[in-house]
């Protein structure tokens, strides 16, 4: 039973690490050059601070996820992992919500402010950003599950296991 | 609860707090967080500014265009208002439970529920505050690559009120962080004193 739990946790952490890493890679590699009237401009992820924040947070979380994979299971550092899981889950939720807000403006525009949607001109960039956001959302869900699970395992809050 | 009232709870800083003091600290923090989140919600919901621009002049008559900036034009601000509203309701309910709920039988689930709900609301308010912060940055600085002009020079009062709401929300976020930490601490200390476990996350000086 304990073996299955350990393998399950390890697998979940590995998948979470993969999702954050792919979110970073997809977002970084999204760029497209487009010509509007006489201007030629290039849409990159670094034009928007929200996407830069998304990339930075996901990079930090993937480094953390990679390091946690190597933690031996009887170590005392698992208590620290609970706290760090909490911090990084909250960082991830904030980064995904910020990126989603800006991506929404890019897709639908804001008529009152006079902001035109840009997705019609740079469709490939838009689709890649959408893909990165979907993967980022999956990583948020996985990290929430991991945080709840590590809280349950280390702290045993519901007194479900007699020790 | 396994502790009697008045029994001392050692905290990790080495000081000895009584149970009553920590309870009143938590409730005071919840009151502050409720006030901050409610202020953020109210300021954002009532945020509105109307401005008239002269767009063109036909002969001697100027053509006017009236624009109104309201918070519900931006979905991020709607999410911000809803998130802060939910957090303020949560803190209000928790204060009520603390004050009036001692006769209700929770079947032992009271402390874990409070801790989990605190953390959920922490994630919620962090998402809402951050989305609104980035939208506000976009409105303040614009985005030259996407040809989006900044709007804060035209709608200055709207931007200022939005900034006030954001500050209140970040204050509520910091307070919710401390409250979650204290709730989890409550959970852990009750847990470790009820059975002899080696899972003490904080060294209890005794």
- End-to-end Cα distance of chain B, whole Å, is 21 Å
Profile the largest sheet of chain B. 2 strands, antiparallel
Instruction: Sketch the topology of chain A as an H/E string, one letter per element.
Output: HEEHHH
Write the H/E string of chain B, N to C. Answer: EEHEEHHH
Instruction: Kindly state the percentage of residues in helix of chain A.
Output: 55-70%
**Low-confidence regions of chain B:** 1-16, 195-206
Output the number of helix runs of chain A.
4
Average of per-residue pLDDT values of chain A: 85
Derived from helix and strand composition plus strand pairing, the structural class of chain A reads mainly alpha
* Number of domain units of chain B: 1
Strand content of chain A: 5-15%
Oligomeric state of shown chains:
heterodimer
Radius of gyration of chain A, in angstroms, nearest whole number: 19 Å
**Fraction of residues in H or I helices of chain B:** 55-70%
Q: Give average pLDDT of chain B, whole number.
A: 81
| General shape of chain A | elongated
Which percent band covers the strand fraction of chain B? Answer: 5-15%
- Domain count of chain A, please report it: 1
Structural class by SSE content of chain B: alpha+beta
How many H/I helices of chain B?
4
Q: What is the β-strand count of chain B?
A: 4
Main location (chain B): membrane
Membrane topology (chain B): Multi-pass membrane protein
Transmembrane segments (chain B): 27-46, 77-101, 113-136, 163-185
Domain Casparian strip membrane protein (chain B): 21-174
